[in-house]
Amino acid sequence: MRPANSEVKWVEIDLRVVRANVRWIISQLSPKTALMAVVKEDAYGHGGAEISREAIRGGASSLGVLTVREAAVLRRSGVKAPIQVLAPVLPSAARDVFKWNLVPTIDDLSQARAINAAAPTSGAAVHVDLNFGLGRWGISPRDAEGFLEALSRLRRLRLRGLSTHIDYVPGKNAVEAEEKLNSFSSLAVRFKKRFPDLVCHAANSSVLVDFPHRQMDMVRVGNLLYGVKPSSLSAPIRSPWSFKARIVSLRQVERGRSIGYAGEYIAPRRMRVGTVLCGYADGIAMEPAERFISLGSGFQYWGVVRGKKAPFVGRCGIAHILVDVTDAPDARRGDIVTLPARRTATSSRVPRFYLG
After folding, report:
1. According to a count of CB atoms within 10 Å of the terminal CB, is the N or C end of the chain lower?
2. How would you write 101-149 as a 3-class SS string?
């Protein structure tokens, strides 16, 4: 579906690119490794339901979110695939886990008891997360044996998975990351002797790319799905996302004239300046508040119109940006400018159009 000519700003998401990214990810997995598509935060701003459906059609076996509320939104939209809540579930949300048919992650016995109490008599599968240094949640590896022993006394719970998310940043701490992945793998081997069906998973996008031998039973992929390369290693993935806006006004600005808030920007030459009706309220809040643009300083941010760069001039406003279209002399009112925007910060008020 394409936007009408009257739309002044919108986001386009190319589902053909999403499908190609999923195919490439699947091609990198060993035959026994499953793919969990991470669709937290509305699929990184791409639309949780739409991306979930594409990922499952492409071969993902499950979906990952952070909260029960996110999962409930997917269920209401008709998504039927297995959904795991990757962050620890609050004891007060235990009943909702079963209302929406979810797989919870736990790292505390109070959570486990609450889920056990709310579970049906047929039982409930849970995943236990271990903390190998990231520090956001998870039990200490040295406490894993005792925790699983206590868990075994909760009769309605079945240990289904063991996970971790290490503090790896590509190009920063690869040696330490390998050591932690090795430690987790050793624990996984030991616990699989007791729980043969245990699903062990530690690989996110960056671990999958940089440590492909650590795929284990499942990988949790978010960034790669959305065309974000978390490593310098070459991968044929692309971004399906683009933020676009139409030029609503064009004017000539003479050399030496000040424009924009506080008159901070002084035109270094005779220019053509266009206005687009989007700004930091839409997620394009990228310019530091005290950043001044002076003669000859260059530009840090720009859009693209008719294949030419259109640098931002002056400050980004709450709902408008001025762009220099001098180098696109054919630019006209109504032309489309492709703009940089943080996907997860882009306002939900900006309409999404899905292609392909």
Report:
1. N
2. CCEEEECCHHHHHHHHHHCCCCCEEEEEEECCCCCCCCECHHHHHHHHH
